[in-house]
């Protein structure tokens, strides 16, 4: 029987489901409630006492940082653990969240193991005592994740640090030999970095719309599994990066050969933030104009 309550806040229902599934399977003593933005979370927190908040940063109506600021002003929530789960992992944002009283910071995409460690760290003896009373153990996370391991994550070796980003004069997708297959050429390549829980894929955008992006990547990199979380980093303007949350929808060889050099990866977007969709819309329009 659940004895603790956690609130999961994210504008993407896909991410909320991943977090809730992980919490439910790893910590059965925690009951989860979810909200699609900070404003809805604020309303729920005013009516129900929660022991843990797991929250995204970028959301419509009220951001995760604004929710954190409000939460630390409420006497009943001044010491309640708040884990920020976000694709905004740069130093400045981490420092800003720490100043506002964040308990832990977890970057997207995350693994179930990574999320579990953060929860154990911030909840400490309160969680352990609840698990002990419920006759549950926190010693074997692998067993707890067995049911969803193939759906949520693949065990992969961390990818090596990527080399400097290639220029159009020496394309990312050039073959290694004269007989190697080559990706379809574009006058100006549009590069994208696709981040997964344990690796980063350097790729070229082949096609993109408001719901998904298809990228081409060399086969010698570490590839994800179907339904793995992903964050697509795209430069939408000079010095301005869009970090789009999604999941792997399709993996496909570019050539009808077993030794093909290139793999096509389709990432389906899950963000529902109007600002992100607006930025994406402008980028798609520029991309299509440049591909003509």
Tell me what the CATH architecture of the largest domain is. Answer: 3-Layer(aba) Sandwich
What is the helix content? 25-40%
**From the alpha-carbon coordinates, what is the Rg to the nearest angstrom?**
21 Å
User: What distance lies between the first and last C-alpha atoms, to the nearest angstrom?
Assistant: 59 Å
Kindly identify the CATH topology of the largest domain: Rossmann fold
Question: Order of strands side by side in the largest beta sheet?
Answer: 6-7-8-11-10-9
Instruction: Give the biggest beta sheet.
Output: 6 strands, antiparallel, barrel
Task: Please supply descriptive tags for the structure shown above.
292 residues, alpha/beta, Rossmann fold, 2 domains, 11 strands, six-stranded antiparallel beta barrel, Thrombin, subunit H, 8 helices, globular
Structure description:
- This protein has 292 residues and is of the alpha/beta class.
- It has two domains: 148 residues, 3-Layer(aba) Sandwich (Rossmann fold), CATH 3.40.50; 100 residues, predicted glycosyltransferase like domains (Thrombin, subunit H).
- Helices cover 30% and strands 26% of the residues.
- The chain contains eight helices and eleven strands.
- The strands form two sheets. It has a six-stranded antiparallel beta barrel. Strands 2-1-3-4-5 form a five-stranded parallel β-sheet, sandwiched between helices.
- Strand 7 and strand 8 form a beta hairpin.
- Helix 2 runs parallel beside helix 3.
- The longest helix has 22 residues.
- It starts with a strand and ends with a helix.
- About 16% of the residues have low confidence.
């Amino acid at each position: 029987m659940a004895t603790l309550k956690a609130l999961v806040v994210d504008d993407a229902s896909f991410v909320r489901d991943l977090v809730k599934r992980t919490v439910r399977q790893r910590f059965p003593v925690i009951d989860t409630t979810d909200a699609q933005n900070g404003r809805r979370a604020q309303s729920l927190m005013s009516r129900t006492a929660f022991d843990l908040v797991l929250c995204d940063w970028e959301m419509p109506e009220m951001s995760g940082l604004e929710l954190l600021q409000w939460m630390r002003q409420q006497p009943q929530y001044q010491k309640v653990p708040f884990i920020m789960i976000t694709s905004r992992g740069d130093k400045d944002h981490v420092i800003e969240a720490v100043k506002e009283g964040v308990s832990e910071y977890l970057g997207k995409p995350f693994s179930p193991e990574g999320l579990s460690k953060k929860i154990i760290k911030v909840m400490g003896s309160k969680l352990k005592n609840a698990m002990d009373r419920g006759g549950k153990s926190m010693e074997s996370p692998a067993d707890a994740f067995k049911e969803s391991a193939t759906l949520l994550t693949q065990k992969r070796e961390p990818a090596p640090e990527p080399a400097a980003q290639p220029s159009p004069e020496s394309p990312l997708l050039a073959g290694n030999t004269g007989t190697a297959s080559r990706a379809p050429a574009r006058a100006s390549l549009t590069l994208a970095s696709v981040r997964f829980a344990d690796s980063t894929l350097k790729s070229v955008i082949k096609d993109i719309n408001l719901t998904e992006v298809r990228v081409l990547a060399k086969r010698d990199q570490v590839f994800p599994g179907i339904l793995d979380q992903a964050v697509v980093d795209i430069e939408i303007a000079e010095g301005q990066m869009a970090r789009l949350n999604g999941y792997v929808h399709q993996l496909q060889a570019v050539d009808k050969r077993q030794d093909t050099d290139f793999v096509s990866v389709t990432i389906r977007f899950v963000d529902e933030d109007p600002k992100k969709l607006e930025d994406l819309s402008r980028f798609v329009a520029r991309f299509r104009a440049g591909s003509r």
